[in-house]
């Protein structure tokens, strides 16, 4: 059995986040000692590791709940899990596209500054103050 602190150390998930995951139903509520301290078993450790990895990959709480539901029913097709992963991949690709647009715009703005000193002519500051100076929407 693991205390919440030990679970936190092993998974590198902060204690308040572990409590939040319990509240959200991602993590089964821990058993309690007579002193009301949480105690987690190996399955709790494995579940929290699963959740952390899924969060690291950007999955939403809702998606993780769906994946856990699927995990608890091994007789079901994994097509739903694949669909969730494909949706996450699509979201990541969209974010990458937006970040590339931001990268190009920041590169352009950065090149507009001559570096002589802060003045009314600083292109970086002017661009941040006036969205009309941007090349495209971002």
In short:
The protein has about 140 residues and is mainly alpha-helical. It folds into two domains: about 5-75, Multidrug-efflux Transporter Regulator, Chain: A, Domain 2; about 95-135.
Shape: elongated
- The tally of helices reads 6
**What is the CATH domain class of the largest domain?**
Mainly Alpha
**Named CATH topology of the largest domain:** Multidrug-efflux Transporter Regulator, Chain: A, Domain 2
Global structural class: mainly alpha
* Uncertain runs: none
Share of β-strand residues:
under 5%
Helix content: 55-70%
Name the average pLDDT: 87
Major sheet size, sense and barrel closure: 2 strands, antiparallel
In the CATH hierarchy, what is the architecture of the largest domain at level 2? Orthogonal Bundle
Helix and strand succession?
HHEEHHHH
Number of domains: 2
Gyration radius, in Å: 23 Å
First-residue to last-residue Cα separation = 49 Å
* Major sheet strand order: 1-2
**E-strand count:** 2
How does this structure look, described?
This protein is mostly helical. The chain folds into two domains: 4-76, Multidrug-efflux Transporter Regulator, Chain: A, Domain 2; 94-133. 61% of the residues lie in helices and 3% in strands. The chain has six helices and two strands, in the order H-H-E-E-H-H-H-H. It has helices at residues 4-11, 15-24, 42-56, 61-71, 79-111, 123-129, and strands at residues 31-32, 38-39. The protein has a two-stranded antiparallel ribbon. A hairpin with a 5-residue loop joins strand 1 (31-32) and strand 2 (38-39). The N and C termini lie far apart (49 Å). The model has no long low-confidence stretch (mean pLDDT 87).
């Amino acid at each position: 059995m693991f205390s919440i602190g030990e679970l936190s150390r092993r998974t590198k998930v902060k204690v308040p986040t572990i409590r939040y995951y319990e509240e959200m139903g991602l993590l089964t509520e821990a058993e309690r000692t007579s002193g009301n301290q949480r105690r987690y078993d190996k399955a709790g450790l494995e579940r929290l590791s699963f959740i952390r990895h899924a969060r690291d990959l950007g999955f939403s709480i809702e998606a993780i709940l769906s994946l856990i539901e699927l995990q608890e029913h091994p007789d079901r097709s994994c097509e739903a899990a694949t669909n969730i992963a494909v949706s996450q991949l699509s979201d990541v690709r969209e974010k990458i596209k937006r970040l590339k647009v931001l990268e190009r715009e920041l590169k352009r703005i950065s090149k507009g500054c001559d570096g002589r000193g802060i003045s009314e002519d600083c292109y970086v500051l002017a661009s941040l103050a006036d969205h009309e100076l941007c090349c495209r929407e971002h």
